[in-house]
């Protein structure tokens, strides 16, 4: 019995170590704050650890964990009954944990991108983050958000349209395309 528990603990630890940067990035993009992202990832991993036998044997454990994170984030949002995406302090928007494979991290004006993202309503922000930052398919995004593929398409399209309507962001993208 002790050997199986130790093997599960080792498997869970390997999973966390391998996925930590991506989980933190997703949580940060959802919450807009470093400390809130850390709390979200921690509470998600606490829930997942308790059910690791089931989660570890799932077809896609990362998708399972992502769904737990989205649900935990949605619960926090509903409890607060306020727009959770509005940043309290602009200085928090630039403290994301860097992911070495993250092309967005190489953007010249990361702060402008994060401020623009923070202006989106919650469901649009979730759709944009999961589709374009996490590079999930529409089906994977729908599963993570607990909605239909059509809802993902609609929220992503509306979110991208709102991002395109932000003057500073549009100018930054236009300048980047000329270089």
Low-pLDDT parts are: 81-88, 90-98
| Major beta-sheet overview | none
Q: How large, in whole angstroms, is the Cα Rg?
A: 17 Å
Structural class based on helices, strands and sheet pairing: mainly alpha
CATH architecture of the largest domain: Orthogonal Bundle
Shape annotation: elongated
CATH class of the largest domain: Mainly Alpha
**Mean of all residue-level pLDDT scores:** 79
Number of domains: 2
CATH topology of the largest domain: Rna Polymerase Sigma Factor, Chain: A
N-end to C-end Cα span: 61 Å
Task: Tally the helices.
Answer: 9
Helix content: over 70%
Count the beta strands.
Answer: 0
- Percentage of residues in strands: under 5%
Order of helices and strands: HHHHHHHHH
The CATH homologous superfamily name of the largest domain equals: RNA polymerase sigma factor, region 2, helix turn helix motif
Organism: Streptomyces colonosanans
Keywords: DNA-binding, Sigma factor, Transcription, Transcription regulation
Pfam families: Sigma70_r2, Sigma70_r4_2
Family: Belongs to the sigma-70 factor family. ECF subfamily.
């Amino acid at each position: 019995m002790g050997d199986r528990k130790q093997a599960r603990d080792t498997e869970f630890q390997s999973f966390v170590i391998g996925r930590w940067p991506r989980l933190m990035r997703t949580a940060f993009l959802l919450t807009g704050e470093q400390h809130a992202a850390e709390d979200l990832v921690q509470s998600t991993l606490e829930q997942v650890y308790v059910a690791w036998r089931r989660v570890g044997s799932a077809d896609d454990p990362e998708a399972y964990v992502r769904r737990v994170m989205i649900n935990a984030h949605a619960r926090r949002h509903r409890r607060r009954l306020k727009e959770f995406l509005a940043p309290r302090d602009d200085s928090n928007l630039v403290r994301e944990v860097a992911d070495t494979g993250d092309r967005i991290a190489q953007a010249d004006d990361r702060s402008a991108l994060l401020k623009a993202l923070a202006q989106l309503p919650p469901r649009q922000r979730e759709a944009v983050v999961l589709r374009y930052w996490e590079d999930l398919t529409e089906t994977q995004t729908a599963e993570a958000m607990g909605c239909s593929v059509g809802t993902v398409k609609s929220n992503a399209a509306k979110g991208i349209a709102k991002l395109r309507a932000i003057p500073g962001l549009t100018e930054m993208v236009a300048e980047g395309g000329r270089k």
